[in-house]
Model the fold of this input.
Amino acid sequence: MRSGDYTSVGLAADCRRTTPSGFLPLLALPYGWLFALDAASVGVQRHWFNQSVKHGNWSHDVSTMDGWSTSPAMREWRSANPKKRYPPEGAAWWRVSFLSTELFEEPSARSLPAGAEVAIALSAACGELSAWVNGLPVNATAWRADPAAPMLIRVDRRLWNLKRGRINTVALRFAADSSHNCSSDVHGAGLRGRVYVVGKYV
Done:
């Protein structure tokens, strides 16, 4: 499986741990994502889930492994709000785009049948999660992401642009979840690890 930006034994092991039974790994999404703070909770209204949206204080290539603590957006927010802690205020957004060609370069995806399920697997995350694929919502109400376990996001096949050369955009919005103390460390609510596209041959 191609990693998107690097290969390692650790990545392969993480992918095996994250991919649920019955699914095959298709693509490891990049290590660095676009990231933005949404302290005023305006991102949904302003369509931050769309690949074309540029407004907002977006940081580039923010690590999904290390959280947002060192991103320019986070440093600017802390400078402007020295006495506040983030979260619980507002939310944070992660967004990444990839070509469907990348997915179909994987041997396991070359014979992907029309009815196959294509999903997103998160190795670790914390907070209340809302997800979009190609600008369309995946879930009607926020899901609870438990940092102690991988999470599978089932995506309606019709939301993907799986024709060769098409761009696919995944957007994830994380808000604080009172059931998990996501603000107990430097990362807060959000991605804590790699993200994979996986497929189930049904």
User: Anything to note?
Assistant: The longest strand covers residues 91-99.
